[in-house]
Amino acid sequence: MKLFPFPLRFSIPVILMIFGSLLGLFSFQREVEQSYRRQEEQGISNLKFSANQSSGMLEYLYRRGDVEEVEIAISKLGSDRNIRLALLCNENDTIIFATRYELRNQPVSNISLPHYLLAEFSQIREIMSGEVKLAENRESTWAIYPVLLGAKPGEVRPSRVGILLIEYDILLIKQQAYADALYRSTETSIGLALFCVIVWLFFHKTLTGRAARLVAVSNNFSKGKLDDRAQLGGSDELAQIAAAFNEMAERIQSHTEALQESEKRFRTLVSNIPGAVYRLVFDSDWKIQFISDGIAEISGYPAANFINTPVGVFQSIIHPKDAAMVEKTIKKSMVKKRNYTIEYRIIRPDKSVRWVSDKGQGIFNENGDILWLDGVIIDSTKRKRAEAELHQTLQLKDELAATATAQAKQLEQALQLIQTEKMSSLAQMIAGVAHEINNPVNFIHGNIDYVNKYSQDLLTLTDLYQQEYPNPHLKIAELIEDCELDFIKKDLPKILSSMKVGTDRIREIVLSLRKFAHLDESDVKFVNIHEGIDTTLLILQSNIKAKPYLEGIKIIKNYGCLPPVECYAGQLNQVFMNILSNAIYALHITKKQNSSKQQTNSSSQIIITTSIQEPDWVKISIKDNGPGIDDAVKPRIFDPFFTTKPVGTGTGLGLSISYQIVVDKHGGKLQCISAVGEGTELVIEIPIARTS
Q1: I want to staple 151 with a disulfide (CB 3.0 to 4.6 A). Which of 158, 307, 366, 585 is the partner?
Q2: Residues 468-520: pLDDT tens digits?
Q3: CATH number (domain holding residue 309)
Q4: Separation of alpha carbons 374 and 448, rounded Å
Q5: How many CA atoms lie within 13 A of 387 on its CB side?
Q6: Which domain holds residue 130?
Q7: Model confidence, pTM
Q8: C-alpha–C-alpha distance, residues 639 and 25, integer Å
């Protein structure tokens, strides 16, 4: 921004004229003020002298009793052109004499006097000393002086005090002083004007003329005339500036030639870069300042079609569906001052479409304002085709993966169906076996009471016979001895009693088998959870009890007081079967490994705990003291087909099916708590009553 909108040869004399005018005006104003002050002081002094002299003369004339001379003295005061008004009032403030005849014999209060003058009358009579007051408009002064008017009858010393009031006009004196000050100021202004002209001529010779030469050389230099130099003589500052300018011009000329050479090398380098390098500058609109020849191979248009043209020319070859996205992305990157990478399509002259990758960045000044954009455009058509082929391949892979997943799902469902069918077949077989066993057992159990009764009758008869015939026949005695009749009497009741206990046990087993045989029931009903656990343990009893080569497993039951639970009884028994089977397997494997290593540890045990979880849930915990599960494996134990057992030993569906039964079928929770060397605990939580 220019501080002075006009050249120095004009602005300096204007400044000097303004300065001279202001100085003359200030001098004139100060002269007027001083003249006014001097005239006011002179007027007050003259009024004091005149009032003092007049009051003394009036007192003298009153002592003589010469009233006519008093009136003449007052009239003489009126002959002074500077005295506007003079009056003498008595002790009652009644005007006795005045320069204006119409005021005589009137009270002083009837004439228009400043209010502060009347208030001074009483004070003046008390102190018997006169005062001079300057009017508020500073155009006149007032003199108030006491005058002894003579003694009243019978008084020795006069007590009548009148007031002499004189108004002295100083306006005429001020007007004369203003005229004198104006004359003197005019003389001073003329002198200042002549001085300013001399100073301007001096500045024009030593400053503005030489500065104009320096400006002309600078303008020529800015237009490209790098060989023009400022030839200014002397050793003052302008000469030093001219010398520095000439030195700077030499350096700029040298640097410009070097820059032109560098630009040639830059264009050669850019022409060998794959793609097109460009620069957009921002003036009134975005303009393509430079774009390399590589754009011709990409777009089919020569670089000359775009250089020094608005960016809209290049935007016209961008695919219509991509143009808005390109503009929005670049504007957003400029606002956030970030680099941008855009992929879009351009349309060549033959209407073929090519993909390009445009990478650029904004260059900003220290204030954050955008200066230009630098970037490079690379043909990415081949890469986009490869990406499309890769996308198709990945899509095919995803389809194959989806097919494999579906097949795996079908396989899982098939295995689950097989598992369910196996459990159903097992239930049917158990039901058939239980039925076949139940009939003869009931027959035996029902006849044991009769046999017991009959044997008791026979034993009673034998005892009675021995009492009646203590000496039996020899053959009978030999038979009694051979069959050990006394032993039979003692042992037969025990045999019958043990047979009854055995049949009761067989009936209990049959009842448990019949309950377990209801696995294929699909109805929801309230059941006793403990009966389901006990039945499962009964089925697994052969794996639990000790064998000649393997220690048995101790079952610890910590049953709580559970109400009947509404559930799928058969499916829940299947969960107990899967979990207990896994626990038994883990304990057997641990025992075999410890036996091979000749290690001993605590006995194998399974702790089954049930309890009520407030408010309406039951919790079943099955915990073993086996080897535990590694943390890396634990998250996968409920996945289908996952198993840690050797190949051919397990299907990997037991816990997966159990999880579906507990969580999906019953809306419950199945949790595994385990650590290596600390055993494994499976916790089942299900609601007591199912919601609709």
Answers
A1: 158
A2: 777 777 777 778 778 877 777 777 777 777 777 777 667 666 666 665 655 44
A3: 3.30.450.20
A4: 109
A5: 7
A6: 12-178
A7: 0.37
A8: 105
